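Consider the following input, taken from an annotated entry for MobA-like NTP transferase domain-containing protein (Sphingomonas palmae).
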Amino acid sequence: MTLADPAALILAGSRGGEDPVARYAGVTDKALIPIGTDTMLARVTAALRNAGIERIGVSANSPAVRTEAARLGTEPLPAAAGPSASTADALALLGAPLLVTTGDHALLDPTWVNDFIARVPADADVAVLLARRDAIERAAPGSKRTYLRFADGDWSGCNLFYLATPQASQVIALWQSVERDRKRPWRIVRRLGPALLLRYLLGRLSLSQAVAHLGRTAGVTAAVVAATDGLAAVDVDKPADLDFVRARLG
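Applying the prediction step yields:
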């Protein structure tokens, strides 16, 4: 897929209260957790730059994270009430195409970024990278992730989204409702409607069919890209994830 040079957004806002992973690591904010000699935010920023992305915004409500974002030469942006609202604000400011990831994606690799963008269908307004359970279990045995079960396998998110066109803004309202239910997959599936829900319950609905339907509901063309590396689904949500990442990176 040949597009204008994308900008990128790193979501590094706090959900409120003390983050248990930050506490475990002995820092104030998860994005500031040291991985080797770098913060997680620095690692994510470096991966995006090595993928050829020059303009990078960091959405954060912590003064310490915003200071780190400025030190890294990115654009500190105020965080909104949640990731989807922060993404809406960033899309309005940075424009499309916009790659969206998170500040706790410590293993992010520039080859994943470039491969994802290259495989976004030409007609897609928005695309999401997901990984199959078998790929994740091969790459990260023992890692506990949240899965959606479909006819073509069990899938988990990779915290990589591509807003290819300005029309992608239409999907953000749907994203906000999905965001509220991210740990309750059955509520996400319920949005498919009776006919597709029945196909899902009978094990006859593929993930790509479900995402395409949800996209049409939002008035956009939405697509799924399958991750080539199961590690792309590993972010730092729990202390065990941090231990895994640090061990993986030596």
